[in-house]
Design goal:
Helix content of chain A: 40-55%
CATH architecture of chain B: Orthogonal Bundle
Largest sheet of chain B: 2 strands, antiparallel
Number of helices of chain A: 3
Distance between the termini of chain B: 47 Å
Distance between the termini of chain A: 18 Å
Strand content of chain B: under 5%
Strand content of chain A: under 5%
Shape of chain A: extended
CATH topology of chain B: Arp2/3 complex 21 kDa subunit ARPC3
Structural class of chain B: mainly alpha
Radius of gyration of chain A: 18 Å
Largest interface: A-B, 62 and 71 residues
Strand order of the largest sheet of chain B: 1-2
Low-confidence stretches of chain A: none
Structural class of chain A: mainly alpha
Number of domains of chain B: 1
Low-confidence stretches of chain B: 217-223
Number of helices of chain B: 9
Order of helices and strands of chain A: HHH
Number of strands of chain A: 0
Oligomer: heterodimer
Chain lengths: 93, 223
């Protein structure tokens, strides 16, 4: 049981930490749609666009995408595990 | 599929913030029944995996890419309520920590990807459950189809929101055509990622696949 969970977490770390460097930089389907139609002109700058890890980088330097990815994995794991553990039905054992 | 702030007008953004909050609140209540000492860690890992895979934009056309949304993947592995929460957590972390997806747009983004995407993926998967129970090929096919449909229907969420209160007054038919065309291609990627992930989990730990849970129940009752 533990082996499976550790393996699953490791795969996520590998994807976010390493494979993320090979991601396409082209706009995704929604971004492409709003760019091609001109809707994107109305897009507002993200309030946190100047924050440390904005756009999965470190201070705007995407050499550190993998690091941002690993941080994200840790944060999502901590938040979601915490939430689901609190919500769970406790076994009567 | 994360929209920035400003693409939808303020009233519509607020309406979808309320819809998203209501949907997530409802999911929080319903999720309890699906979470125990075994499934809670699995749910945390599913959310984490979706975050990681969403970082990987794959090319679909010259100049356009797509990434996993994860609704069907989450719904098949941990159920619709917990699944919607998994995708919501991912979207909140992306918006707050990585400035990916606007803040006033968070309601619409959660509505599309976490609520509509997960619900659609789950409904399709349940409708095809008999096929999924037949074996690995069946499960692969069902996961692929559920994920494909979840992508296109989630994209439709944006089309509807834009029709209600989008900025710029672009003809809705044009928006719909682009969204559907691009997301039909992205849906193939979503389908493949979901099918490979779900069948991999099923081959190691079939007991952790929510969609297959019911199939074992009659046997347990008889024994």
């Amino acid at each position: 049981m533990k082996k499976f969970f550790i393996g699953f977490a490791f795969v996520s770390l590998l994807i976010a930490g390493v494979l993320s460097y090979f991601a396409s930089g082209d706009p995704d389907g929604l971004d492409k749609t709003v760019e091609d139609t001109g809707i994107a002109e109305h897009a507002q700058e993200h309030p946190f666009s100047g924050s440390t890890f904005a756009d999965y980088a470190l201070g705007g330097d995407d050499k550190f995408t993998g690091l941002a990815g690993v941080l994200g994995v840790i944060v999502v794991l901590a938040l979601s595990f915490g939430l689901f553990w609190v919500l769970r039905k406790k076994s009567d054992a | 599929m994360h929209m920035s702030d400003g693409l939808l007008n303020a009233p519509v953004s607020v309406v979808f913030l309320v819809i998203a909050a209501a949907g997530v609140g409802f999911a929080l209540v319903k999720a309890r029944a699906d979470l125990d000492d075994r499934t809670a860690p699995m749910a945390g890992l599913v959310a984490t995996f979706i975050f990681a895979v969403q970082m990987i934009n794959f090319p679909i056309l010259p100049g356009a890419s797509g990434h996993l949304l994860g609704g069907a993947l989450a719904a098949i592995l941990v159920g619709p309520w917990v699944g919607a929460l998994c995708v919501t957590i991912v979207l909140v972390v992306q918006a707050l920590l990585f400035a990916d997806g606007g803040l006033t747009a968070l309601g619409a983004n959660v509505t599309n990807m976490a609520l509509i995407g997960t619900a659609t993926g789950f409904l399709v998967a349940v409708a095809l459950r008999k096929i999924a129970e037949r074996g690995k090929g069946g499960l692969f096919a069902v996961a692929f189809i559920s994920a494909f449909v979840n992508t296109v229907v989630a994209a439709t969420g944006f089309v509807v929101e834009y029709a209600i209160g989008g900025a710029g007054g672009v003809e809705i038919g044009k928006v719909a055509l682009l969204m559907w065309g691009l997301h039909a291609l992205i849906g193939i990627g979503e389908g493949l990622i979901t099918a490979v992930t779900v069948t991999s989990v099923a081959s190691i730990r079939p007991d952790l696949v929510y969609l297959l849970k019911g199939s074992r129940k009659p046997l347990e009752v008889r024994s």
